[in-house]
Specification:
mainly alpha; three-stranded antiparallel β-sheet; 3 strands; elongated
Length: 219
């Protein structure tokens, strides 16, 4: 697939993000998207062809591969990238709605359509919660599907139609495990950034509301 759409989406969201949000965009674009396209995709490219078992029983290798790799690491990683990026569309759509509303009424309704306040603040917070939720769900999914964040060199399979317990070998396990750890580390970093940004926006909004009430009370 072409990753141009995801790149354009992240670039568009960058205009309406806070400083922390821009760091998140940089991490996703440089340390996840570019690493995926430039290196990780090629490592898992022929994973099925390079999966070998010490028996030539018809169907045995396919069944064992499907058992140990129910979903390809790289396809799951691609799905994760898409899912954690799409909540940002909510912010883009909300800004577009504000701009269209101003055009329809032919007057200035907002100080700036891209300023994070009011309804746009709620949309932004929802997008942060969704992104954090997707990150956590995919980390748990990785852990459950592959029994931890590791890629073994040798797996033993006794599933029919294999006549007995057979040894199956995974190609480039060390290289794959390094990229898997990199995936987990960048996901955790993105979760931390999302939580920091969420806390920052809530704290900033709370202080703003408190000052407004305090000023009204003094007046």
């Amino acid at each position: 697939m072409s990753w141009g759409f995801l790149r354009d989406l992240l670039s568009g969201v960058n205009k309406y993000s806070t400083g922390i949000g821009r760091i998140w965009v940089a991490v996703v674009f440089i340390f996840r998207l570019l690493v995926y396209v430039a290196a990780a995709e090629n490592i898992w490219k022929y994973e099925h062809d390079e999966f070998e078992c010490n028996i030539k029983q018809p169907g045995c290798e396919n069944v064992c591969f499907d058992h140990f790799f129910p979903v390809s690491h790289i396809r799951l990683w691609a799905l994760q990238l898409i899912m954690v990026s799409t909540p940002s569309l909510l912010v883009v759509f909300h800004v577009a709605y504000r701009e269209n509303r101003e055009k329809h009424h032919n007057q200035k309704l907002y100080k700036s359509p891209g300023e994070i306040d009011g309804g746009l603040l709620c949309t932004y917070l929802i997008s942060l919660i969704l992104k954090t939720g997707f990150e956590i769900v995919f980390l748990v999914l990785f852990y459950k599907l592959y029994n931890g964040f590791k890629v073994p060199r040798l797996v033993k399979c006794d599933i029919r139609p294999c006549p007995s317990t057979v040894d199956c070998y995974i190609s480039k396990p060390t290289e794959k495990m390094i990229f898997l750890y990199f995936l987990v580390a960048t996901s955790c970093l993105c979760i931390v950034l999302n939580l920091i940004e969420l806390s920052y926006l809530i704290f900033k909004y709370s202080i703003k509301r408190y000052l407004e009430r305090y000023i009204k009370k003094r007046q």
